[in-house]
Design brief:
With 296 residues, the chain is of the alpha/beta class. It contains eleven helices and 13 strands. Helix 4 links the parallel strand 4 and strand 5. Helix 3 crosses helix 4 and helix 9 packs across helix 10. The longest helix is centred in the N-terminal third of the chain and has 19 residues. It is globular. The N and C termini lie close together (10 Å).
Length: 296
């Protein structure tokens, strides 16, 4: 049986969201590591306006992603694979689902194709406009914490590659728990800083780039975090990602560390277009797929 959910800590950012500890040590110069449980975070307190400025359209078109929409094939394959896991775990009672951080609506589209009622929210205007106008999905611009959603209506909340961006993820998880019916689900994907690959890369791990990535979970700290908020963790393991060659080179060229970045920049320039479109599944062991359930 999971622990009773704890109230969201609205005190100082110094309190560890995973264990409640207050003792921190510098980690890789730009991060802080909890001395008690090992949870890692960026020591930044972003205002809502700073968050809004970070996640404009250029975030998806040249900043963190080379061209998010151009990689639609990869997104659809990844979301179809995630949906297969959701359906396997939830059985017949999949919908309705709500996505926190819906971006351009590819997850909502995957749900719609499967006949599952879905809706979502994102802070970035242009992606939401695309999700609504082009994809025909129920998406809205806004802050999940400020939304008024019906209690017990959604059987699942999804945070695909989102929780690492949040300044106070404990508030999001607590609200999802409160809104879910007994037996409802929370699905999360995020980087695993405790993985062998991330440990080997150290400060050069590709996922370390504050201020867009603020929270750095491991399998242990993610389990502890969700259990403290009342959830039963049903799945917490690495997941493969579908990539194409061009997308991979673009991301390493922008976010790579050490010699990998200039090498990727050269390869990006001279790799033929047909090769850039070639796709592959890759599991480096450093992306977590988490499924947690509110007790019945």
């Amino acid at each position: 049986m999971s622990a009773e959910p704890i109230p969201v800590n609205v005190e100082a950012q110094r309190t560890c969201i995973s264990c409640g500890g207050v003792r921190w040590a510098t980690h890789f110069r730009v991060l802080q590591r909890c001395r008690d449980c090992g949870f890692i975070k960026a020591e930044m307190d972003l205002s809502p306006e700073q968050v809004r400025r970070l996640y404009q359209e250029d975030y998806f078109q040249g900043e963190e992603y080379g061209d998010y929409l151009a990689d639609a094939v990869s997104h659809r394959k990844n979301f179809d694979a995630r949906l297969a896991v959701v359906r396997r775990l939830m059985g017949k009672n999949v919908g309705p689902v709500f996505e926190i951080g819906c971006a351009y609506g590819f997850w909502l589209e995957a749900c719609s194709r499967a006949g599952i009622e879905a809706a979502g929210v994102d802070v970035c205007v242009e992606p939401v406009r695309h999700a609504r106008m082009v994809m025909g999905q129920r998406a809205q611009v806004g802050d999940f914490l400020a939304l008024s959603l019906p209690k017990g209506f959604y059987n699942a909340f999804c945070m695909w590659d989102t929780i690492e961006h949040l300044a106070n993820p404990e508030a999001f998880v607590a609200k999802a728990y409160d809104l879910l019916p007994p037996g409802g689900w929370l699905f999360i994907t995020t980087g695993d800083i405790g993985s062998l690959y991330a440990s080997w890369r150290g400060p050069r791990w590709r996922m370390i780039h504050p201020p867009t990535h603020l929270q750095y979970f491991s399998t242990a700290t993610m389990r502890q975090f969700l259990t403290r908020h009342g959830f039963q963790v049903m799945r917490c393991q690495s997941t493969p990602m579908y990539r194409n060659v061009g997308e991979t080179l673009e991301r390493v060229a922008r976010l790579g560390k050490g010699v990998s970045q200039p090498i990727a920049q050269v390869l990006r320039r001279y790799t033929p277009d047909w090769l850039k479109q070639c796709g592959f599944w890759l599991d480096l062991g450093d992306i977590l797929y988490v499924a947690a359930r509110k007790p019945l």
